[in-house]
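re the bet — no i am not wrong, look at it urself. input seq straight from the record:
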Amino acid sequence: MKSNEITPAQMHELLKRNVFSDIDLERIASMDADQRRELKVSQIDKMLGKASADALGWYISRFVDDDNQRRAENPLYDEEDTPLVAWYLEVLELSYNLYFHEVFCLDLLAPGLEMDTVDQRQQFTIDNQQLMDWLRQTPYRRVSAMVARIIMLVEYDKVVGHNDAVQDYYAEHCSTGEFDPQDENKADTFTNNAIDALTEMKHHAEQGRQLGLSDEQIRVVDMLWSWVPHDYPEAYVETAKEVIEVVDRALPAKTVIRSRKGFRMFYDQLIPQLMQVIEKHDVPVDFTDRYNLTVGYMYDWLFAKYLGGIVLDE
């Protein structure tokens, strides 16, 4: 053995001393699957709460590198069939996904949370009622916040480029950039804020659909109102429908190659027509204000409409 190599016994002791000092590791061999999972989640929660260092990141780095490849120098991989090392690797799998905000099999958290869907990302949604209940009820508030953060990131991905007003609402009410799982109270606040924001936007979308609106019509009403939620005033709904009709008629043929210069011409020619529609319905939009949210949202929406799936010719 090289002088700088660590023995399995030394690695066990290192893990015990730094992250598992409060449990009897020997009893893991006699635990059933549910007990092992419960211990796993509780220990990850404690690692997230350690004030002295990034304990969860430290633990992950003992086993895998930055590319999530096994570290050959970790001697415990030679013992992965043993109950204790198998449990270490179970902790690693969930830890890695939480730490790097990646979706995962929800059975790693608790039984019964999985939804019947091919796309694993769709399990991290407000529609997964069992998961929402778990977020509210689990005593492991730091882990709950980490899961809530993944849900919010999935939701952000769904609305980016599809509804700027909803995107801004999420940023205002549950910013994933302002996140501190170490403080249990802050973690709990983040989870509650995430659930509230997701619930609010679900109800907002449902209200629009009850009025017979498509996702695009909801987006344009939100754009015209410049904030969400709202009660879909009739004037805004009628304006949104007419605005979409005007834009769709003005779009170039699918065979036309798009360019940024072409979009600028398209935008400049279209805005006066849209202003007429908006003014006709007495919807207040100040097109002279460069910081007006509606104008900014409209620019992004029109650009997405203009691209139309055609590769942009820069």
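see?? The mean pLDDT is 93. told u. also The chain has twelve helices and no strands. so pay up
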